[in-house]
Amino acid sequence: xxxxxxxxxxxxxSASSDSYxxxxxxxxxxxxxxxxxxxxxxxxxxxxxxxxxxxxxYYTTKSVSSAKGTNTGYLYSANHSYAMRAVAGTxxxxxxxxxxxxxxxxxxxxxxxxxxxxxxxxxxxxxVNTIKEKNITKVVNGKTxxxxxxxxxxxxxxxGTGFQDVAVYDIYLAKGVGMIENDTSVSGxxxxxxxxxxxxxx
Length: 202
Known about the structure:
Helix content is about 0%, strand content about 65%. The chain is built from no helices and 13 strands. Strands 1, 2, 3, 4, 5, 6, 7, 8, 9, 10, 11, 12 and 13 form a 13-stranded antiparallel sheet that branches. It is globular. The two termini are about 20 Å apart.
């Protein structure tokens, strides 16, 4: 759901910002994206512009990928809460994915809707979000990141018999860096893995 681009900075825990999701204009990230056995590079750049959805201000991103083309997305970073509105993989569906909350402890769970009207393709939907781990160390592509929050977001549909799990997103945010990994599975099958390879925080 996310892409990244940057000048060649080696990933690591030494970025200057204290945010778990830096949104400063010109900040960029590079990700290795593996989808269905195919690998491509995803690039994400903060454009410096903002957009309001539901009374909340989101920061506009531009993502570029040889596999997915160029897309516009939006990051939310306020009140210790982090989220992203973007196209989900190659589906063309726009979802708002919760990325974490740095004011809550591991085990904290909250429910959100993935779209403005609470449905996906006309089907009632919700995200059940849980902070699985906090203040952990995680190695991604050989680099060690400290102060990492691991959030799991479970997308559920109600097809008439109650909400059932459809997709699971495991997101890792590193303090001062942003998203370092996003693992997605659909119906219990691995679908996409995005791992950071470089970044520049302005």
